[in-house]
């Protein structure tokens, strides 16, 4: 069976990206307990990749670039919003859990708003 | 060989190999290939410890509105003026994972730098796919310690700033797309919250780029100007709060002196020069000549390289950052930090030179770029092997003592630090989460030379006073505690006023006399009936003073 990147959905590609990233961490930090590596990489994926992924669909780019830009957008929005929400009393622990799904939803709504408005 | 005919797969493979190489040689080696550590390893300067402690205080204190009092001589109202970005990301990652902030801050810094390289790759790919592939190995660079000090000396704020500088450059390529201004505005704001000097440089780049564009093409589209203005509007709204803080601290307290700065203040013996590029340094002047040629003799040069627009954004960016790296000669000591990122910033120029040279001998194909890129990644990475080893100035015993103080002593305790790592890199002492005092080293050394143990030693408060301990009087008015009349009173105390004594009992051979003297003072203190041993391990002793203020 031939493996064609173009035939995969972006959800599949996101899953593959997670798996590849995890393997990279296993290689680089080969002396680490695998459980620690999985927890650390998953936490990084949660706050550095996921928050910005939906909003990147505003712009046309290939999936690899999308992941790189998602890291850029996620870092920016998570860092900025965690700082300002911290000033009004939200603890970073809460920010790290609440903000990624919130930004994913906001991004999804923003990207699809025109489609819905046309209907 | 079908796999290698699929460009998408090959591109993914090379980027994966690049990321592995980057993380393996720059982070894996330094960390003994572990993520979690019992104590901070490979930390070699104050900055490492401070940038690990600030996120720790955010985890404890909820808000980064003010610094924790143990950072600021006991004052509760000192405005947190250091860039908050990496501290918040580190605190979040630490909250989610099982890692301490000294591990997460370091991990985030190297992760962001690796991501910056991949984003820059996409910027360069917009000019030429082959040159983009060739630029990757130059981002790793040939090993030279001055390029690595950002990782080991803890210049993590700078590294996060570099990441957003690259993001800004990428977003400029999208400025004319729908909502492109949002990206530029967001990344400019993030740069200001990551490292303010990088914001100054990247705004300088935007101005430089558009001036050159205007000269070269004779016009800038109205929509582009409109989008740029919208982007700066977004940036101003998002970062206004922090920019006010920067104005009343860095800009008001620091005075710019336009004088020649020969060496970096953060590491005087480790300034980056062209020679640190090793054998590849000769590629740079060649690329600059190509750029000048393209500017003066556009058609002739473009006929030599028909698929490459030499005077593109990546070239202008490289050139600008090369110039910024030399602004130390007019007084900007931050230029030395910029030089540390030269392997990334100048990678386009390096790759362009290689591309140009090989073009004379062989017609370019994508597969040739893949082969050369892979070969160079392997060759350059191999120069790092064994050159970076785990180590640092912190020992496990010393760290265990610091943690013990933070967990087992009342929060208002005064801790006096004797000669050791917490004195030579004095911001380590804030890791105790207690207001730290350090022995007056002049008095200490003088007494050692005279061979006496005094019945009192001066304890000087250790804290972050570089911005004069700013506090808010009103939203747009700041005061400074170091200018308060009573500041000197809290600054200096007697040894007998302290609650705990942190005494290193081992050190390097060079420090043998100092360590012996520590031990002697420790024994003298132990002879007092109101002072007892509270904690001991093979590196340090902690004594508890049950009656602070009582003297012999």
What brief labels describe this structure?
heterodimer, A: 119 residues, mainly alpha, B: 552 residues, alpha+beta, 2 domains, seven-stranded mixed sheet, two-stranded antiparallel sheet, 23 helices, 9 strands, 56% helix, elongated
Describe it for me?
The complex is a heterodimer of chains A (119) and B (552). The radius of gyration of chain A is 16 Å and the shape is flat. Chain A has 119 residues and is mainly alpha-helical. The model of chain A has no long low-confidence stretch (mean pLDDT 92). In chain A, helix 1 packs across helix 2 and helix 4 (63-87) packs across helix 5. Chain A has one domain. Chain A has helices spanning 10-28, 34-48, 50-53, 63-87, 92-118. With 552 residues, chain B is α+β, with helices and mostly antiparallel strands. Chain B has two domains: 2-30 and 81-255 and 276-382, no CATH class; 396-545, no CATH class. Chain B contains 23 helices and nine strands. In chain B, the strands form two sheets. Chain B has a seven-stranded mixed beta sheet, sandwiched between helices. In chain B, strand 4 (470-474) and strand 5 (477-480) form a beta hairpin. In chain B, helix 5 runs parallel beside helix 8 (156-172). The N and C termini of chain B lie far apart (84 Å). At the A-B interface, helix 1, helix 2, helix 4 and helix 5 of A face helix 2, helix 4, helix 5, helix 8 and helix 9 of B.
Whole-number tally of structural domains of chain B: 2
How many H/I helices of chain A? 5
Fraction of residues in helix of chain B: 55-70%
Main sheet summary of chain A = none
Measured as a percent range, the helix fraction of chain A is over 70%
Q: Cα-atom Rg of chain B, whole angstroms? A: 26 Å
Report the strand count of chain B: 9
Could you tell me how far the N terminus lies from the C terminus of chain A, measured between alpha carbons in angstroms?
41 Å
State the helix count of chain B: 23
The oligomeric state of the chains shown is heterodimer
Instruction: Work out the count of structural domains of chain A.
Output: 1
Which structural category do the helix and sheet elements of chain A fall into?
mainly alpha
Strand order of the largest sheet of chain B: 6-3-2-1-7-9-8
**N-C termini distance of chain B:** 84 Å
pLDDT averaged residue by residue of chain A = 92
């Amino acid at each position: 069976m031939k493996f064609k990147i173009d035939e995969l959905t972006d959800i599949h590609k996101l899953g593959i990206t997670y798996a590849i990233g995890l393997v990279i961490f296993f290689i680089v930090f080969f002396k680490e307990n695998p459980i620690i590596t999985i927890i650390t990489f998953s936490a990084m994926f949660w706050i550095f990749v996921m928050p910005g992924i939906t909003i990147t669909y505003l712009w046309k780019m290939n999936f690899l670039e999308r992941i790189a830009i998602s890291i850029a957008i996620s870092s920016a929005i998570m860092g900025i919003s965690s700082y300002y929400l911290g000033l009004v009393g939200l603890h970073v622990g809460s920010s790290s859990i609440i903000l990624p799904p919130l930004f994913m939803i906001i991004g999804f709504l923003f990207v699809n708003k025109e489609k819905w408005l046309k209907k | 060989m079908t796999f290698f005919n699929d460009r998408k797969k090959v591109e993914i493979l090379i980027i994966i190999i690049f990321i592995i190489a980057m993380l393996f040689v720059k982070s894996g080696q330094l960390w003994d290939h572990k993520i979690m550590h019992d104590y901070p390893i490979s930390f070699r300067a104050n900055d490492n410890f401070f940038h690990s402690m600030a996120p720790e205080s955010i985890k404890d204190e909820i808000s980064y509105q003010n610094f924790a009092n143990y950072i600021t001589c006991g004052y509760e109202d000192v405005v947190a003026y250091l860039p908050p970005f990496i501290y918040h990301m580190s605190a979040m990652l630490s909250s989610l994972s099982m890692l301490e902030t000294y591990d997460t801050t370091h991990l985030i810094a190297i992760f962001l730098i690796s991501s910056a390289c991949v984003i820059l790759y996409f910027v360069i790919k917009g000019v030429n796919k082959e040159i983009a592939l060739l630029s990757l190995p130059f981002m790793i660079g040939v090993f030279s310690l001055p390029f690595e000090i950002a990782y080991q000396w803890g210049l993590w704020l700078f590294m996060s700033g570099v990441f957003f500088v690259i993001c800004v450059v990428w977003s400029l390529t999208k400025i004319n797309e729908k909502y492109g201004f949002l990206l530029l505005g967001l990344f400019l704001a993030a740069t200001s919250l990551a490292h303010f000097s990088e914001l100054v440089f990247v705004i300088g780049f935007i101005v430089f780029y558009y001036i050159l564009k205007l000269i070269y093409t004779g016009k800038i589209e109205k929509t582009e100007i409109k989008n740029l203005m919208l982007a700066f509007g977004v940036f101003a709204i998002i970062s206004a709060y922090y920019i006010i803080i920067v104005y009343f601290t860095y800009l008001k307290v620091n005075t710019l002196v336009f004088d020649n700065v020969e060496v970096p203040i953060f590491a005087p013996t480790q300034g980056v020069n062209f020679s640190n590029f090793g054998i590849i340094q000769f590629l740079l002047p060649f690329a600059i000549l190509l750029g000048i040629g393209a500017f003066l003799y556009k058609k002739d040069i473009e006929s030599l390289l028909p698929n490459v627009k030499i005077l593109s954004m990546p070239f202008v960016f490289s050139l600008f950052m090369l110039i910024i790296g030399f602004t130390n000669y007019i007084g900007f000591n931050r230029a030395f930090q910029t030089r540390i990122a030269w392997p990334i910033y100048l990678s386009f120029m390096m790759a362009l030179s290689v591309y140009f040279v090989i073009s004379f001998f062989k017609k370019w194909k994508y597969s040739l770029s893949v082969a050369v890129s892979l070969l160079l990644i392997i060759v350059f990475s191999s120069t790092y092997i064994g050159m970076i080893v785990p180590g640092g100035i912190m020992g496990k015993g010393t760290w265990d003592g610091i943690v013990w103080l933070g967990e087992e002593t009342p929060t208002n305790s005064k801790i006096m630090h004797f000669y050791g790592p917490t004195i030579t890199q004095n911001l380590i002492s804030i890791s105790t989460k207690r207001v730290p005092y350090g022995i007056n080293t002049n008095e200490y050394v003088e007494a050692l030379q005279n061979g006496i143990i005094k019945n009192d030693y001066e304890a000087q408060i250790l804290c972050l006073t570089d911005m004069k301990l700013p506090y808010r009087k009103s939203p747009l008015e700041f005061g400074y505690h170091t200018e308060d009349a009573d500041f000197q009173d809290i600054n200096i105390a007697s040894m007998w006023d302290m609650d705990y004594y942190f005494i290193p009992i081992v050190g390097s051979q060079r420090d043998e006399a100092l360590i012996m003297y520590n031990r002697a003072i420790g024994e003298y203190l132990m002879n007092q009936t109101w002072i007892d041993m509270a904690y001991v391990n093979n590196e340090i002793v902690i004594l508890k003073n049950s009656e602070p203020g009582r003297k012999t």
